[in-house]
Amino acid sequence: AKAAGRAKFQFYTDEMNRAATARLDIERKLRGAAARGEFELWYQPQFDSRQGHLTGLEALVRWRHPEDGLIAPPRFIPLAEETGVIVEIGTWVLREACRQARQWLDAGLPQLRISVNLSVRQLREKCLVETVSAALAASDLRPGLLELEITESAVMDNPDEAVALLQALKDLGVRIAIDDFGTGHSSLSYLKLFPLDHLKIDRSFVSDIEHDANDAMIVAAAVSLAHNLGLSVIAEGVESAVQVARLRELGCDELQGFHFSRPVTADVVENSLRTVWRT
Ligand code: C2E
Ligand code: CA
Ligand code: CA
Ligand code: CA
Asked: How far apart are CA 59 and CA 204, in angstroms?
C-alpha cells in the first residue's frame, strides 16, 4: 500500500510538474509577444435591437502564435493577468483599436464606436489615463468613438478608487461600459456614482432566457435599473431568434452574439460594412 501511495504521489508530482512547465512555457512565449507583433484584434458587431442597424464593434484579442496557431483569450488572458503581461498586451490593444478605427474612417467607412476590454490590472496602473489619451492622440480619433469595457467585478473590487479613475477616463471624452453585469456583487448605490454609458448583461442570463423565468426577471430588473440611471443596455451572447425577440421585449437596446456574427477579422468587417451590415 505504501508503494502504491508513493507511486500515486509520484504520478501527481509528475502531472503538476508538467502543468507548471506548460505554464512557464506559455508565460515565456507571452512576454514580448506584443512587441513581436503576434497579437491580432478581431471584432464582433453590436446591433440596435429594434432598427437592426450596426451600433458598434467590440475588439477581442487573438494570439497568432508562430507554432501553436491562433489562440483564443481564455487560454492566455488569465495567465497574462497573473503575470502582469496583460498591461503590455492591453496597451497594444488600445493603440491597435484606435489605429484601425482611424484607418476605417480614412477609407470612407461610416463612423463606428469601438469597444476595448480593460483588465483589472490595467485599472491599477498609474498611467492608464495617459495610455488611453496617447492612443487616441496617435490616431487622431474622436474620444467619443472609443468605449472602454470594464467588468463589474473589477470596479467593485475597490469602488471608491474606481469612481475617481472612471471619472478621469470619462473626462477624456471616452465612453464607459460595465461588462459581465450580473456576475459579480454590485452595490447599487455605487452604480449610481460611476460615470457609465453602457451596461452589458452577461451571457449567462441570456443563454436560457426562453426557458428560465428567473433569468428573464433579472434582465428586466437590470434594464429598468440601467434606464433609470440613464444607461443604455446591451445583451451579449445572443444565439437565437427567440432570444432576440425576448430581449427586445424586455427592453434591451442593443444585442451582440453569434446569432448576428462571431468575432471576425478587420477585412471581414470592411466587407460586411459594404454589404450586409446597415449603419
Ligand atoms: P468578454 O469581454 O465577455 O467577450 C465576449 C466573449 O464571448 C468573446 O470571447 C466572444 O467571442 C464570446 N461570444 C460572443 N458572442 C457569443 C455567443 O453568442 N455565444 C457564446 N458562447 N460566446 C459568445 P473571446 O473572444 O474568447 O474572449 C473571452 C474573454 O477574454 C472576453 O470576454 C474578455 O474577458 C477577454 N478578452 C478578450 N479580448 C481582450 C482584451 O483585449 N483585453 C482583455 N483584458 N481581455 C480580453
Ligand atoms: Ca467585453
Ligand atoms: Ca462580457
Ligand atoms: Ca439560468
From this structure: 20
Closest to 43 in 3D by CA, of 64, 57, 63: 57
Radius of gyration of the CA atoms of the chain, in A:
21
Strand pairing class (69-71; 54-65)? antiparallel
Weakest mean pLDDT among 23-32, 88-97, 131-140, 259-268: 23-32
The Cβ-side half-sphere exposure at 65, using a 13 Å CA radius, reads: 16
Quote the pTM value.
Answer: 0.94
Query: Are the C-beta atoms of residues 79 and 27 closer than 8 Å to each other?
Result: yes
Which three cell numbers mark 260?
448576428
Classify residue 109 by its DSSP letter: P
What tens digit of pLDDT does each residue of 48-68 get? 999 999 999 999 999 999 988
- Percentage of residues in the chain having pLDDT higher than 90: 83
Nearest CA to ligand 1 atom 43: 117
Q: Which amino acid makes up residue 30?
A: L
Nearest ligand, CA of residue 154?
A: 1
d(CA 105, CA 210): 39
Pocket of ligand 1 (CB under 6 A): 44, 60-61, 72-74, 77, 86, 90, 93, 117, 119, 179-180, 203, 237-239, 257-258, 263
Could you tell me the pLDDT band of residue 42, with boundaries at 50, 70 and 90? very high
Please determine, for residue 148, whether its predicted confidence score (pLDDT) is greater than 90. yes
> What pLDDT is recorded for position 46?
98
- Mutation test residue for ligand 1: of 93, 98, 117, 123, the one with most atoms within 8 Å of CB: 117
The helix/strand count (H/E) of the chain reads as: 11, 9
The CA 236 to ligand 3 mean position distance, Å, reads 7
Compute the distance from residue 272 Cα to the ligand 3 centre, in Å: 23
Predicted complex ipTM: 0.97
